[in-house]
Amino acid sequence: MTTEWLHRGSGQLLAVLPEPDVEALAETIVAFANTDGGTIILGVDEKTGRSTGDLYPEDVDSLLQEALRRCRPPVELECRQEEIAGGFAFFIRVPRTAELHSLIDGRVLVRRQSENRPLTGEEIRHLAATKSGGDFEAEVVPGARRDDLDDGVVEEFLQKWQEKHRRPWSRPVEDLLIRIGALTDTGEVTVAGMLLFGQDPQAFLPQSGLVFVKFPGTEPRSEEGVAGYSRREDIGGPLPRIIQRTWAVLMEEMRIGAVIKGLERKEQTEYPPAAVREALVNAVAHRDYRLRGRRIEVRMYSDRLEIISPGGLPGYITLDNIVEEHFSRNPRIVGGLYYWGYIEELGLGIDLMIEEMTAAGLPPPQFDAKPHLFSVTLYNRRERAPIAPWERTMNERQKKALDYIRRYGRITNREYQVLCPHVSPETLRLDLADLVEKGILLKVGDKKGTYYILK
């Protein structure tokens, strides 16, 4: 079990603290409680996976009590221990709470990847406003019963959960639904549970569907110039099915071209699939389901794709920090979609969208945030040739070498040294050898007569 956790490494939902540091423990508890929740592993060396041998059960209790005395207000924790090589590992589960937590010295921290970051005064005000609005996804759905959940979808989720954890779930499936927040401790269906597993979630939450509309031009009009569209799909069901069905429609409607590289013909979609997928999943995972009267909208025009999500940016997120920061409005829904495989790693969706679009030679995504609306726009006008996958892994020196070869037809070791005068000859030799190994360059000649050309 410990190896499985450590394989993920410290990140948005996991912190490994090998030493019994009260201050670091208190900071991490506050950061997790203010962001998405998470798990702290105490007494384990992250590199070796072995116990440090410094902690025993009686030590951890006093350590936690001291750490919680530094939190305002205190956080309810779950703690368990596991015997591993060299001693014990201690797992502390910190929930995301509806309260704003600070340290005794007044600092308010949030989790950003593997770090605990203090918020500024303005960010604290934004987060406090979000917390005061309550936790809608945890509320009970009036009139809903366990029978309103789709057993087939629940079973599919159970299989996905077991695959992620690499172990079977041995208790009743209802216990797992309680653990992930789909059911309350008394078995009542929550908003998150209905959205993830409901047979007909839209009967209880009409705003939870999605509408896809395709327009033939760049404006919301038909080819005849009147208001209209060439295709419309109203998509409902639990959130995993909404993602699947919308994705299928998008793949049907996206234009596919071809790029000739050497003797190979490669298909190229109108938009990078990974960027579209991230924009779609983000809209489904992070929309404000409290807002009624509007569904998620996916609008496809001849020059762009717009994905519009009801609800402004959550927590302390702004357009200025959206790339670096992460805060989930709906952590239970996000957790469910993570186990389904729609979310690979928290906090990296925006980065991936930008990377995929720019690598394809397209403009970066445009984000628009209003008080009750957030939209992502992807444009299909290519600004330059796509970047090959191997080009993304090159260092700046290698890029210089390629530019030189494209200009002069070839490069020698001596010419490369002139380009990069402050780098050792051995490092430059390894740069060129790496490009040869990747099949980008061809080495011609031997010893002093060696030069390199594009393969």
List keywords for this structure.
Methyltransferase, Cobalt-precorrin-4 Transmethylase, Domain 2, Arc Repressor Mutant, subunit A, 18 strands, alpha+beta, 455 residues, Heat Shock Protein 90, globular, 36% helix, 6-stranded mixed sheet
Describe the structure.
This protein is an alpha+beta fold. It folds into 3 domains: 116 residues, Methyltransferase, Cobalt-precorrin-4 Transmethylase, Domain 2 (2-Layer Sandwich), CATH 3.30.950.30; 174 residues, Heat Shock Protein 90; 66 residues, Arc Repressor Mutant, subunit A (Orthogonal Bundle). The chain has a 6-stranded mixed beta sheet, covered by helices on one side. Strands 1-2-5-4 form a 4-stranded mixed beta sheet. Strands 3-6 form a two-stranded antiparallel sheet. The chain is globular and about 75 Å long.
Q: How are the strands of the largest sheet arranged?
A: 10-9-13-14-16-15
How many separate helices? 16
Number of extended strands: 18
Q: What fraction, in percent, of the residue positions are helical?
A: 25-40%
* CATH fold group of the largest domain: Heat Shock Protein 90
Mean pLDDT: 88
- Supply the helix-strand structural class: alpha+beta
Strand content: 15-25%
Q: How big is the Rg? A: 26 Å
In the residues, how many domains can be counted?
Answer: 3
Shape: globular
Instruction: Tell me the CATH architecture of the largest domain.
Output: 2-Layer Sandwich
N-to-C terminal Cα separation, in Å?
47 Å
